[in-house]
Every structure is written in C-alpha cells, then in structure tokens.
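Minimal example, chain plus S-adenosyl-L-homocysteine.
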Amino acid sequence: MARKFFIDNNFENNLIEISGDEFNHIVNVSRKIVGDEIIVINGKGLDYNCKIVEINKKCLKLKVLSSIICDAETKSDVTVYQALVKSDKLELITQKLTELGIKRFVPFVSSFCQVKANSTRVDRLDKISIEALKQCGRSKSVIIDKVKSFNEVIDELNQYDLVIFAYEKSKNSLKDVNFINSKKVAIIIGSEGGFSEEENKIIISLKNVKSVSLGKRILRAETASISLTSVVMFKLGEWENIWKLVF
Ligand code: SAH
C-alpha cells in the first residue's frame, strides 16, 4: 500500500501546498521529485491522488488528480472510553485502537486513576493517532476527546445502541452479547486500579450497558482495551477482507 501523507488544512481549486514534517518526509525521506504521484489525506475519509508540480526549499505544491473514498475505513461506529493510565500505555492504546478502526477515543478520570487529568497530553495522542492512521491505510481521523470526568462519561452513554463494560467480576460472556442492529457501540475500560465498587454499580445500572468478563485472568488495562476492541470489531464484521471473497 502506498504511503499516505497528511495535511491538516483544506485546499482550493485542486492545489495543495505542503511544508514542515510532511514536506521533509516527501522530499528527503521518500525522495519524491516533480512529476511523482502521491496519496494525500486530510482526515475526512478521502484519499487524494496528487501529482507533485513544484518543489521549493521549504515547501512543495501538489495538483489533485482524483479522489476516492478510502476502503480501509470501518463501517461501524465504535467509541472507546478509557480510564486514564500512564502516558506510555495510553499512547500504545491510542495507536492500536486507531489501527483497529475505532471512530472516537475518550480518555477519562475515575477515582482509582493513578494519573492526573492535566498530565495527559491529548495533542500527543492526536499525533500518534495520525501516524497510525497513515501507517495502516485509514483516511478518517479518530476523534480524540479532551479528558472527561467520570460523570461526563456516564451522562453521554445513552447515545449508544450498546455499551460493553469490561468488568472483572461480571458473570456475562461476550459471546452472549447481541451485536445485531448495534450501529453505535461504546466500550468502557478501567485504569490500572480498575473502578471503585460505586463506579462499577453506576455503570452497570445503565440500561444499554452489558458488563462482560474477559476471562479468569486480570488483564492490564492496555491488554483489556486492545483485545476487547479487537473482538468487538470482529463481531461487528470489520475483519472481513472483501477482496479475498472476490478473487
Ligand atoms: N481491578 C483490577 C485492575 C484493573 S485491570 C485488579 O483487581 O487488579 C484494568 C481494567 O481492565 C479493568 O478495569 C477492566 O476494565 C479490564 N479488565 C482486566 N481484566 C479483566 C477481566 N478479566 N474481565 C473483564 N475486564 C477486565
């Protein structure tokens, strides 16, 4: 798959100007020259096939030749609510969930979090997610929210058809969760310290929430987040590679 390059601005009359890091990647790392064609994305879901028409010292100019809807995007609308964990783990989770195709990522504070809200660099999470987006061939940016409070998360869960809550003490199995007609799905994962009993009760009390066990072992938050999101994507049919069926 051709490497994609990201622009965070819109463009008019089919002309794009690129400078900064992406200029460096295109000219100095990928050694592209005038006349070469590259794929550019602006995070809205389209791949723009462009031709390099001019290269200057610090910026280059592209002409947009065509655009197509990226076929690597998931059809499902999955949001993951992740209670704050240490930044290296939060960055790993952000990268992997972007690759897995989630639409939105919401870091939030719960009472057992060992990390403070103001120590979470959402701008870094954004950067990591965009790098993962380009690497895995996606074109629609993951929406990464500012850190929310526990109550803010609870207040917005009613918008989902299905909320899957990873709860160590749950007696429910994921295989009994009905994903049919679940267009808008949320997943909730705790921090390294998990949730308080009070928080567990509040989450489980919501009518569209299904608590599930991830087995007898206590998984680290990042293991739980990445593996549960993987299984949910599989159950939503996002692991079918249609091309295999055709050829
Ligand atoms: N409460 C755990 C620590 C939290 S593990 C302990 O007693 O040590 C981090 C998060 O991963 C949990 O809040 C939960 O959302 C998820 N998780 C880990 N293992 C799980 C399991 N076996 N079943 C369901 N969720 C699990």
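The chain has a mean pLDDT of 94. The first strand starts at residue 4 and ends at 6.
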